[in-house]
Amino acid sequence: MRIKDISKENRPRERFLKQGPEALSEAELFAILLRTGSKGENVIEMSNRLINEYGLDKLFECSLKELQEIKGIGPSKAMQILAIAEITKRCNFSKKPIKKITRANDVFDLFHERLKDEKQEHFYVLMLNNMNYIVEEKLISKGILDKTLIHPRELFRHAIKNSVSKIILVHNHPDGDPTPSTNDLEITEELAKAGNIIGIKIIDHVIIGKGEKWSWKEG
């Protein structure tokens, strides 16, 4: 059935305008975002299928490549779905912003929601002023964490630019276990030595797992 074959008052957009978003089902809201279906399947049918088969939470956890392997999902729809997921993640984060870092749990609360379902490792540097208030955060690398890819020059360039004297390193483990690898420890030690030379102290390295963390400072 085509959307045009559905009576006008029962189409998602028309119902949205008349009754508001709360009156629509998840599939209808999803249909408004995806806009079009595929050959032999209108956008409402597609949305119902995707939600029934995968669930919104699993769809939002997929990578761009994984989404495009699903029937009816091309690059454009895959990007739309991931854009929704990213906006949701940022919205959740903005509701409980953390300004001052006093312990590793503060770092965990800051990053866990956005990193817990990532399929790749993300390496961040968190820059703090003398009172431990956040000045800026910067994503340094994305992918397999390798000490050859984390160059001190790139890492400390942002700290120098922001005139900070202390930073915290943060990265996630996609398997959910925050236990540091030998490589993690070597990277931390090497960067800490480099920081001491130029007067920028690494006060912690926090590894984010699923529901738990590891802290270089707190153990």
Task: Provide structural commentary.
This protein has 219 residues and is an alpha+beta fold. It has 2 domains: 3-93; 104-215, Cytidine Deaminase, domain 2. Helix content is 45%, strand content 16%. The chain contains 9 helices and 5 strands, in the order αααααααββαβαββ. The protein is elongated and about 70 Å long. The model has no long low-confidence stretch (mean pLDDT 89).
Spatial order of strands in the largest sheet: 2-1-3-4-5
In DSSP terms (H or I, runs of 4 or more residues), the helix count works out at: 9
**Which percent bin holds the helix content?**
40-55%
User: Helix/strand/pairing class, anyone?
Assistant: alpha+beta
| Low-confidence parts | none
Largest sheet: 5 strands, mixed
CATH superfamily of the largest domain: Cytidine Deaminase, domain 2
How many domains?
2
Q: From the coordinates shown, what is the CATH architecture of the largest domain?
A: 3-Layer(aba) Sandwich
